[in-house]
């Protein structure tokens, strides 16, 4: 009987489900958006029940579209928006509050205090992270502090904390303690909590104490590729093993088959997430990157550097919705192509400050170098170039941290469809930019991890054969021109820093 994999990709704005066959080909996709809540400036929440119902409905719909029976699914792979925090009551299965989303800044002041505390140095060494409201730890502490009775209930073992992977596994296995629901997470998701020691692979007692988190709320940490649990048969129509779990950026690194040290992927979505495989030992960053996990397959952990850029494809949305110089995002390419170069115009899209490697929360956007001859086409070109310059700044930091030679950059995400941007990216980096045939790296990664977990595929080398190139963009710009352009970018960047 033919075997299939079901990938559940629970993202920030939508829940997606994909069915793959045992050749790793995608045969069905279903997607559903869900509600974003912004209760106060800087706060972002999701309804955990809506996350579950949307995820379940797309899973069923993808199975229907694939025209397969649930019993033909060999395994489920879960991949998810990372850091988003849910706390629920084990007995009733009810969340005690909305999920606090990774973008939520409500715990920024707690992080300021934590940065000055005696745990700060240990935190960075153990978790590889910088202290920031982005991660789950302070969000969990906020829930325990602000939901009435939560801390006592947590101490008494009545509450469960989880990232979205944990919540989905809980729901897939029955949704209450009585029904036998499991409380598990994987190595990659645990690594984004700010409570987990990525070297020992265990929850860190000192950090739990610093954030006053009772150990009783924490899930058990498992690898990213093994049978973690079996779904309750009544939910999807068959009991199916969940055999792959990873945060979405880690899954994308795997889906891009960046399985050797020095291999890098960049996802060009709203922002950019760049991850580089650094091998079986974690390396500290001295260039303002995160030192994080790649995945754990069986007993073998692998590590990565990560750099996030806050505004990438979003600058194209701004050209469309803010400036109104294009109608659709894809129009940016034709507009930018009307001019042979940027004409000395630089756009720094620091709309929300600057992420890696600059980390300037007070930077703001700017357009520099305007002359009377500047047109909308120059601005469009400068916007696309800015995505490439920011990427080059992160890759430089990675190269210097990793001391590894970069052979190429593997790309995915909506803006990686833009040929002009990808060619310019290759030119600026001086390394080939490689775009795969299948763009769904995140879902592929989750399905690959799950397939490995149940033996549909035997090892990484079998998977690497499935990964195919759509197009390679070779660098062709003169080194002197690259130098001049990057100098112009850095000059504009300086003007944008420390503005607000
Ligand atoms: N042809 C294009 N050129 C540049 N940017 C694009 C193009 N098409 C889409 N985008 C941008 O890509 C982003 C959407 O990519 P996607 O991977 O779906 O992002 P996300 O997962 O963050 O929602 C949007 O910000 C959009 O403006
Ligand atoms: O859901 P995405 O694709 O926006 O990814 C969210 C990241 O995992 C946040 O760290």
UniProtKB/TrEMBL annotation:
<dbReference type="GO" id="GO:0019563">
    <property type="term" value="P:glycerol catabolic process"/>
</dbReference>
<dbReference type="InterPro" id="IPR005999">
    <property type="entry name" value="Glycerol_kin"/>
</dbReference>
<dbReference type="InterPro" id="IPR018483">
    <property type="entry name" value="Carb_kinase_FGGY_CS"/>
</dbReference>
<feature type="binding site">
    <location>
        <position position="83"/>
    </location>
    <ligand>
        <name>sn-glycerol 3-phosphate</name>
    </ligand>
</feature>
<feature type="domain" description="Carbohydrate kinase FGGY C-terminal">
    <location>
        <begin position="265"/>
        <end position="452"/>
    </location>
</feature>
<dbReference type="Pfam" id="PF02782">
    <property type="entry name" value="FGGY_C"/>
</dbReference>
<feature type="binding site">
    <location>
        <position position="12"/>
    </location>
    <ligand>
        <name>ADP</name>
    </ligand>
</feature>
<feature type="binding site">
    <location>
        <position position="82"/>
    </location>
    <ligand>
        <name>glycerol</name>
    </ligand>
</feature>
<feature type="binding site">
    <location>
        <position position="418"/>
    </location>
    <ligand>
        <name>ADP</name>
    </ligand>
</feature>
<feature type="binding site">
    <location>
        <position position="134"/>
    </location>
    <ligand>
        <name>glycerol</name>
    </ligand>
</feature>
<protein>
    <recommendedName>
        <fullName>Glycerol kinase</fullName>
        <ecNumber>2.7.1.30</ecNumber>
    </recommendedName>
</protein>
<feature type="binding site">
    <location>
        <position position="414"/>
    </location>
    <ligand>
        <name>ATP</name>
    </ligand>
</feature>
<dbReference type="GO" id="GO:0005829">
    <property type="term" value="C:cytosol"/>
</dbReference>
<dbReference type="InterPro" id="IPR018485">
    <property type="entry name" value="FGGY_C"/>
</dbReference>
<feature type="binding site">
    <location>
        <position position="248"/>
    </location>
    <ligand>
        <name>sn-glycerol 3-phosphate</name>
    </ligand>
</feature>
<feature type="binding site">
    <location>
        <position position="414"/>
    </location>
    <ligand>
        <name>ADP</name>
    </ligand>
</feature>
<dbReference type="InterPro" id="IPR018484">
    <property type="entry name" value="FGGY_N"/>
</dbReference>
<feature type="binding site">
    <location>
        <position position="270"/>
    </location>
    <ligand>
        <name>ADP</name>
    </ligand>
</feature>
<feature type="binding site">
    <location>
        <position position="313"/>
    </location>
    <ligand>
        <name>ADP</name>
    </ligand>
</feature>
<feature type="domain" description="Carbohydrate kinase FGGY N-terminal">
    <location>
        <begin position="5"/>
        <end position="255"/>
    </location>
</feature>
<feature type="binding site">
    <location>
        <position position="83"/>
    </location>
    <ligand>
        <name>glycerol</name>
    </ligand>
</feature>
<dbReference type="GO" id="GO:0006072">
    <property type="term" value="P:glycerol-3-phosphate metabolic process"/>
</dbReference>
<keyword id="KW-0067">ATP-binding</keyword>
<comment type="function">
    <text>Key enzyme in the regulation of glycerol uptake and metabolism. Catalyzes the phosphorylation of glycerol to yield sn-glycerol 3-phosphate.</text>
</comment>
<feature type="binding site">
    <location>
        <position position="82"/>
    </location>
    <ligand>
        <name>sn-glycerol 3-phosphate</name>
    </ligand>
</feature>
<dbReference type="Pfam" id="PF00370">
    <property type="entry name" value="FGGY_N"/>
</dbReference>
<feature type="binding site">
    <location>
        <position position="12"/>
    </location>
    <ligand>
        <name>ATP</name>
    </ligand>
</feature>
<feature type="binding site">
    <location>
        <position position="14"/>
    </location>
    <ligand>
        <name>ATP</name>
    </ligand>
</feature>
<keyword id="KW-0808">Transferase</keyword>
<feature type="binding site">
    <location>
        <position position="134"/>
    </location>
    <ligand>
        <name>sn-glycerol 3-phosphate</name>
    </ligand>
</feature>
<feature type="binding site">
    <location>
        <position position="12"/>
    </location>
    <ligand>
        <name>sn-glycerol 3-phosphate</name>
    </ligand>
</feature>
<feature type="binding site">
    <location>
        <position position="248"/>
    </location>
    <ligand>
        <name>glycerol</name>
    </ligand>
</feature>
<feature type="binding site">
    <location>
        <position position="317"/>
    </location>
    <ligand>
        <name>ATP</name>
    </ligand>
</feature>
<feature type="binding site">
    <location>
        <position position="16"/>
    </location>
    <ligand>
        <name>ADP</name>
    </ligand>
</feature>
<keyword id="KW-0547">Nucleotide-binding</keyword>
<feature type="binding site">
    <location>
        <position position="249"/>
    </location>
    <ligand>
        <name>glycerol</name>
    </ligand>
</feature>
<comment type="pathway">
    <text>Polyol metabolism; glycerol degradation via glycerol kinase pathway; sn-glycerol 3-phosphate from glycerol: step 1/1.</text>
</comment>
<dbReference type="GO" id="GO:0005524">
    <property type="term" value="F:ATP binding"/>
</dbReference>
<keyword id="KW-0418">Kinase</keyword>
<dbReference type="GO" id="GO:0004370">
    <property type="term" value="F:glycerol kinase activity"/>
</dbReference>
<feature type="binding site">
    <location>
        <position position="313"/>
    </location>
    <ligand>
        <name>ATP</name>
    </ligand>
</feature>
<dbReference type="InterPro" id="IPR043129">
    <property type="entry name" value="ATPase_NBD"/>
</dbReference>
């Amino acid at each position: 009987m033919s075997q299939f994999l079901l990938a559940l990709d629970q993202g920030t704005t939508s829940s997606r489900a994909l069915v793959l066959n045992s050749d790793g080909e995608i045969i069905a996709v279903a997607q559903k958006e869900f509600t974003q809540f912004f209760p106060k400036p800087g706060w972002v929440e999701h309804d955990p029940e809506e996350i579950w119902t949307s995820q379940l409905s797309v899973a069923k719909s993808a199975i229907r579209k694939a025209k397969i029976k649930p019993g033909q699914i060999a395994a489920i792979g879960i991949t998810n928006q990372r850091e988003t925090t849910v706390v629920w009551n084990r007995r009733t299965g009810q969340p005690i509050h909305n999920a606090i989303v990774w973008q939520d800044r409500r715990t920024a002041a707690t992080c300021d205090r934590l940065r000055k505390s005696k745990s700060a140095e240990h935190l960075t060494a153990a978790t590889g992270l910088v202290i920031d409201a982005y991660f789950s730890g302070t969000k969990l502490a906020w829930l325990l502090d602000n939901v009435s009775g939560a801390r006592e209930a947590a101490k008494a073992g009545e509450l469960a904390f989880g990232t979205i992977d944990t919540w989905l596994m809980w729901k897939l296995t029955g949704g209450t303690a009585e029904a036998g629901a499991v409380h598990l997470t994987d190595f990659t998701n645990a690594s984004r909590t700010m409570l987990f020691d990525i070297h020992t692979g265990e929850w860190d007692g000192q950090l739990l104490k610093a954030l006053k988190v009772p150990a009783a709320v924490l899930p058990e940490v498992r690898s990213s590729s093994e049978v973690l649990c079996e779904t309750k048969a009544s939910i999807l129509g068959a009991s199916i093993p969940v055999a792959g779990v990873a945060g979405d950026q880690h899954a994308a690194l795997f889906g891009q088959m960046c399985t050797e040290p020095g291999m890098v992927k960049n996802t060009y979505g709203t922002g950019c997430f760049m991850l580089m495989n650094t091998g079986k030992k974690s390396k500290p960053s001295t260039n303002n990157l995160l030192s994080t996990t790649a995945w754990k397959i069986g007993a073998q952990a692998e590590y990565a550097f990560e750099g996030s850029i806050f505004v990438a494809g979003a600058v194209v949305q701004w050209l469309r919705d803010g400036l109104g110089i294009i109608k659709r995002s894809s129009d940016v390419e034709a507009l930018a192509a009307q001019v042979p170069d940027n004409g000395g115009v630089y756009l720094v899209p620091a709309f929300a400050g600057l992420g890696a490697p600059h980390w300037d929360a007070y930077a703001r956007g700017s357009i520099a170098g305007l002359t009377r001859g500047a047109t909308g086409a120059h601005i469009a070109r400068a916007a696309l170039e800015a995505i490439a310059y920011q990427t080059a700044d992160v890759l430089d930091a990675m190269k210097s941290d990793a001391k590894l030679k970069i052979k190429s950059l593997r790309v995915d995400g909506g803006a990686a469809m833009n040929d002009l941007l990808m060619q310019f990216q290759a030119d600026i980096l001086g390394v080939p930019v490689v775009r795969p045939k299948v763009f769904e790296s995140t879902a592929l990664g989750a399905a690959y991890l799950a397939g490995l977990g149940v033996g549909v595929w035997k090892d990484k080398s079998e998977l690497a054969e499935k990964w195919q190139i759509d197009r390679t963009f070779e660098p062709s710009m003169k080194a002197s021109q690259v130098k001049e352009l990057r100098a112009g970018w850095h000059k504009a960047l300086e003007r944008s820093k420390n503005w607000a």
